[in-house]
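S.,

Sequence below, as promised.
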Amino acid sequence: MLDLDLDFVPGGGSSSLTPEPEVSSSNTYAASVNNTAKASSKLTNDSSLEAYLSSVSAIICLSHLRWDFVYQRPQHLLSRFAKHTRLFFFEEPYFYENAQPRLEMEERENGQVTKVIAHLPNGLTPAESDAKQIELLNAFMADHDLEKTVFWYYTPMALEISRQFTPALTVFDVMDELSAFKFAPPRLLELEAELLAKADVVFTGGQSLYEAKRDRHQQVYAFPSSIDKVHFGQARQNQEDPADQAGIPHPRMGFYGVVDERFDIELLREVATARPEWQFVIIGPVVKIDPAVLPASSNIHYLGGKSYQELPSYLAGWDVALLLFAHNESTKYISPTKTPEYLAAGKPVVSTSIRDVVRPYGDLNLVQIADGAQAFETAIVKALTQKEDKEWSRRVDDFLAGFSWDKTWQGMVRLMQGVSTEKKAKKNSATT
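The prediction came back faster than expected:
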């Protein structure tokens, strides 16, 4: 039987399978929702999904992200698959002096997920590194039945070590426009084109990404990242303030996430300077930028990275949650998972005009949208009073009632089943 989490819905809860699209509250998703619904209409019931999942011997995920870095979309989705089949999560290699080429395996999610990391010596050229990884992956896959295995890609760069395989199904989950990120490999766009040609089905992590990819593959479907409402709903209850946050005065404006080239450093600096009585709590690792360039003042508090489990306790102590994203190439297609997470925690939200936040959250007046320090400051002032607005809270809860990682995952499974059935039918007709 499908093992589903019980997601929080204010006033109740449901874990039932449903064919409805994940986002039904806004017409802004009409194109992708209709696309998903059309494909899903051919599928039957829960038992057929279970039968499909039982036919998959393993899912091999090839990722640019590390499982233990930040708990986000890959972990939410893949941990659900791992309840039904073996899940191997291949990370990028570790390089160090005198390393003997090998694959290290570590268990996660109570043994349901196997993290796989190649250990390689320093000094290898890219071609030599790929050759060693191909050798290791070939030996690993020799023990698996490719006719029953699904390959799940988060990075096109993984094609360099895996293009030799023809699994039962190839999935490309486009989480970000990686080519726009800082230090993106020069060959990434070329390899993305190759992966789009190889993939059987393509999912995107937001509407903007869907619009950018929909003409490049026949089976592209938008699945904006969702929320664990039970988890973030904890922030609506009284929580003990974490020790490193407890001494920070109110009002508190908070942000959690990776602090990198997408983070609007100057916006934070200007608003914090204009409002010294406001406290800004920044949670998350600093990567790809020099920490020295971050604004330093007595009302900005960098608390470092926190575990997924800790986030609700920090959120509970904030007055307003922020989406401090700059406007640049790396943010053009982002669909921040933290938007619905903040709202599920009951927090008013202020965001810069990121497209997938404006649509639908800004358009529905669920999130304050503002660009520039003065407008952002004004939006925070408005947001500080919004928590007491019962009408806003009701509309937020009504909107979030259509969200859950279960529904997102179920929709993907339905499409994978449908594409697999069609693929087998074509193969059988070609051999008869």
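The longest strand covers residues 113-121.

Coffee later?
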